[in-house]
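agent> step 3/5: call structure_predict on target 'Coenzyme A biosynthesis bifunctional protein CoaBC' (Desulfamplus magnetovallimortis).
agent> reason: downstream docking stage needs a structural representation; sequence fetched in step 2, passing through unchanged.
tool.input:
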Amino acid sequence: VVRLFHPKDLEGKKILVTAGPTREAIDPVRYITNHSSGKMGYAIAEAAEKRGGLVTLISGHTSIFPPFGVDVVKVTSALEMADAVMQNMDDADIIIKVAAVADYRPLEPKSSKIKKDKVNAVSEHSVSETFSAVGQDLTDASSFPDVNSFSANAALTIDLVENPDILKMAGERKTKQFLAGFAAETENLDENALAKIRKKNLDMIVGNIVGVEGSGFESDTNKVKFFFRDGTVEELPLASKKQVAHTLLDRILAKI
Ligand code: CTP
Ligand code: CA
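tool.output (status=ok):
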């Protein structure tokens, strides 16, 4: 069903949506992130705005334009996203946390670019030994050493530390807000989704199995399953992210 006209059933409601990936700095030119495109969160923000909602979208870096009429707060890291959510959640009626927050960040982001020669200095001896032991003939591609046979000798270790769980923080802080999370899983979707509802004090979780054809991170369509706090479960057919957004808002409205 393509909706041309939207009921203004979210008129006056404040909706907070988080979307996109977070970026966790390794050094000034590199970061750790994930495959989130932001499309699902942006579709929800857009749908809520069209239905009359007052929407704040807290977004990590994405390559898509924010929907018209939506207040956008741009963030980079999980720590920044946590701050923005805490600052914007108290007067929200509905909070939908779609963002793919990086679970870990580098413990000590370097203030200058990590240079290979400095990393390799420690293990230079073993790397050159591997090269000479292989005795490769550079004119014969088949005799090239397997990259894995010497990469271990030039290993770089980055210590990671866990990021705060923003959704769990919101669950602890919330009063009257309806709080929805998302969960991408590769296995045991039902079990993990229900556990996350309890652990994070959520009203619902939208689960999707990563790896289903036409579903997930960069796709325009999504195959999701709704899990509610009261144990109700609803599996939707593969649908556009826009359609999923509207159905999600329909269900949330029925609960509040
Ligand atoms: N989430 C969050 N802050 C984090 C990690 C996750 O707010 N540091 C939120 C996501 O925005 C999402 C939900 O928690 O709405 C579920 O994310 P998911 O990665 O599935 O769950 P985790 O609790 O991180 O567990 P795991 O990755 O181990 O499955
Ligand atoms: Ca996670």
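agent> step 4/5: record observation. Residues 116-134 form the longest helix (19 residues).
agent> proceeding.
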